């Protein structure tokens, strides 16, 4: 296998790309998950054998990603598909886990909606993000991931750049009407609304002492002091 460094261009260079080992790659090839792709493994990344642009990394679509997942080769790997790239998900700190747990309790009573925790959404043709929490329609068919949601939540301890950038763009495109970014170090919740092709048109920031308005019937207003109580003590 070639070992020269692979260049990733555009704003996506900030994404923490998932780098697979040779065993994972060979398993994907063996089961046919990469059939039809003229790619090779280099520096842990899937790259085009004959790149036509400076960025050699191959961008995969949702169908290819789902074949990779179905093969079992990515079992146990914390990875998601963003903008056609396999991206490593941040490990969960105790603060991250505590906030997700509290938000789960807060959102669980949503009427006529289904709460999904750290499960995939099928976004654009090349993205399958896994938000920390999402409220989706109950009627979504069980044989496929939801394509949109009424609310998505990302809890950011170190992933602020990604959550404010690529993920915010994807959620606005879906379009998802309300996107919460929970800034754990900043002890704040950024509420984005008014989605459109250019992103969210409005962002309101709620700090400790404020109350975030309920996003859905059956969900109480979110007490910021309660959400962050005891964290960092």
State the order of secondary-structure elements, H for helix, E for strand.
Answer: HEEHEEHEEEHHEEEEEH
Oligomer: single chain
Category from helices, strands and their pairing:
alpha+beta
Residue-averaged pLDDT = 91
CATH superfamily of the largest domain: tt1808, chain A
Query: Main β-sheet: number of strands, strand sense, barrel status?
Result: 6 strands, mixed
Tell me roughly what share of residues is in helical segments.
Answer: 10-25%
Would you identify the CATH architecture of the largest domain? Alpha-Beta Complex
How is this structure best described in words?
The protein has 233 residues and is of the alpha+beta class. Strand 8 (178-183) and strand 9 form a beta hairpin. It folds into 2 domains: 11-88, no CATH class; 94-228, tt1808, chain A (Alpha-Beta Complex). The strands form 4 sheets. It has a 6-stranded mixed β-sheet. The model has no long low-confidence stretch (mean pLDDT 91). The chain contains 6 helices and 12 strands.
